[in-house]
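Model it.
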Amino acid sequence: MKASSYRLGLICLLLYVLLIGAACAAESDEEDEDEITFRDFSLNIGDRVDLDDYQMELIEIQSLRDGLVVMRVSRVGGSLDEQRALLLDSPNNFDGGAEKGGVTITITDIFDEQSARVRLEYEQKLGTPRKRASDRPAAMPEKPELLVQKSFDRNEMHVGDEVKVTITIKNTGTGTANDIDVQDIPPLPEFTYIAGYPPKIKETLDSGQSDSAVYILNAAREGSVQIPAVVVSYADSKKNSKSNSSEPFSIIIRPKSKADLVINVEDTPPLVLDEEGLLNISISNQGSASATRIEATGEVSPSDGLEIKGLDKSFFEIPPGDAANFSASISGHKRGIYTIRLKVSYDDGDGSVIREATSRAVVLKREYKYQYLLVIIPIIIVSAWIYRRHREYKY
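Modeled.
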């Protein structure tokens, strides 16, 4: 009887231990199912993640600058359908969040205007989330890209020259560029600014459009000048800020261009009284700028005895490398040596300049043929007398 009671008690104890163990195991399984876990997904626009009856789709990258991504979260059956802009690194709860049986979504990174990394938090009992790639064709991203160019109409100039500066901007991207702002460097000390500065460009350029601005400078200081880049800032349709710049380059400003006239007056052969001759004159410009308002005047010393016609001349312009040639007629009325002084005044581009040159003219006394006979006849008479005396002494 005692043995039977002992076996019965042992069996009851074993049953009790088994029941306690089963209850603990069930409770442990329930706790495991309620544990919160997470998964990270890289999604393109249109991709979605399915978890149980939840569907989470990436709709758009609203702003790279502000870190905003639009997600749509829904449940099969329609109990939840919400589209929300999520801020980067900010958890967003749906259906109370992961701690209350729903889901929590966090944008952990934004790759570009088409993709982002999404973290999904959920209870393990909801199952395993799976990524579904979008079956829609990828939309062309609206991404403006401005090509910026700055140029001078010449890279070498002289002090005082005007130069035209052109800034050209073209949208080579696929979206509209808004809020365009041209940031050209403040006026350079080597130039004075005449017109058109600062440059004005359209504030909006659609894809493929371009615009230009032109302003005029005057070179004021010689030397090699480094022209810095012009920077253009703009924004896309989602207010993301961007900027592009032109390439810097250098130009050379040489000393001021000036005209330099050189006068060449040819010496005339000797003249006899009342004989006419020509005085050839050349005025050449060996400078780098045109000479203007050229006035040539001459004077003779001594002032009487030599007549000159056509020595005074005027010319409107002599370009660099060119020359003005002319001749003056001269005739002598008195024997002697005369000095002809030519004076040329002109504007060299920086003011009035005077150049001078001199030439010499010789006027001889006119010679007649009988004058030679007057010399020869006495010689003949003397020679004949000597010859006659020589014969007389011989015989």
